[in-house]
Design brief:
It comes from Streptomyces anulatus. Residues 1-25 form the signal peptide. By secondary structure, the chain is of the alpha+beta class. The chain has helices at 10-26, 37-43, 51-60, 170-179, 185-191; strands at residues 32-34, 69-70, 77-84, 91-96, 102-109, 130-136, 139-144, 147-154, 157-164, 181-182. It contains five helices and ten strands, in the order H-E-H-H-E-E-E-E-E-E-E-E-H-E-H. The radius of gyration is 17 Å and the shape is globular. It starts with 9 loop residues before the first helix and ends in a 34-residue tail after the last helix.
């Protein structure tokens, strides 16, 4: 089913995606870690740090351990420098390929309507209109002409896996979305910055995005960028 209906936060999510991926590309991939965390865990006999340490490391990046999610996708690795807080206590990260493909994972507190296509019609952008918004299994798939995303609701959280359509096809994005899960202690140890180490670059939060409407940036005189 294809619809002109447009969730209010689709544009902010995809705008933030573009800005975050630009930062991830600019910082290089010297701190990438394998996305196959299950294989990495089984290959190591080293026990994970105790839970108290992991929770402290999560607080150091201004989030909580329960909001840290990870995913797996063939050929993609986590860019450690992309790990950071989203909103007040959410979580964001970027997975990359050697060929330039990038997938963004975001976990944040959002209303139920932001996870699906039930919030009613909203005007799309002439530059990047919504072309698809539909149910796909247990998740919702939304796409503009340039970007697309899968979203699922987990309690009071919305987990979004997104990417640029020219870099990540829908099958790869779907696989990453279905593989997304809350990090266990071993995965937290792999993803979170070590104790005492400065956190990675924080995912971009646009200060000029209005909380309602189609989410287009506010370009009025005096608006912050």
């Amino acid at each position: 089913m294809t619809s002109s209906t447009r969730p209010a936060r689709l544009r902010p999510v995809l705008t933030a995606l573009a800005l975050t991926l630009t930062l991830a590309a600019a910082t290089g991939c010297g701190t990438e870690v394998a996305s196959d965390t299950a294989a990495a865990r089984s290959a190591s006999a080293t026990p994970a740090p105790d839970r108290a340490e992991l929770e402290a490391r999560a607080r150091a990046v201004q989030t909580v351990a329960e909001h840290v999610w990870v995913t797996e996708a063939p050929g993609y690795t986590l860019a450690r420098q992309s790990v950071g807080v989203v909103g007040d206590d959410g979580f964001g990260s970027v997975y990359t390929t050697s060929g330039g493909g990038q997938i963004q994972l975001r976990v944040e507190r959002l209303p139920h309507a932001d996870a699906d296509c039930t919030d009613g019609p909203a005007a799309g952008s002439a530059q990047d209109p919504v072309v698809t918004c539909e149910r796909d299994g247990e998740q919702w798939y939304r796409a503009t002409e340039s970007g697309h995303a899968y979203a699922q609701e987990q309690g009071d959280l919305v987990v979004t896996v997104s990417g640029a359509r020219e870099e990540v096809d829908r099958a790869a994005l779907r696989a990453a979305a279905r593989a997304a899960h809350r990090a266990d202690d071993h995965e937290l140890d792999q993803v979170l910055p070590p104790s005492g180490e400065a956190a990675g670059r924080q995912p971009v939060e646009r200060g000029d995005l209005p909380p309602v409407g189609d989410g287009a940036p506010n370009n009025d005189v005096g608006a912050s960028g």
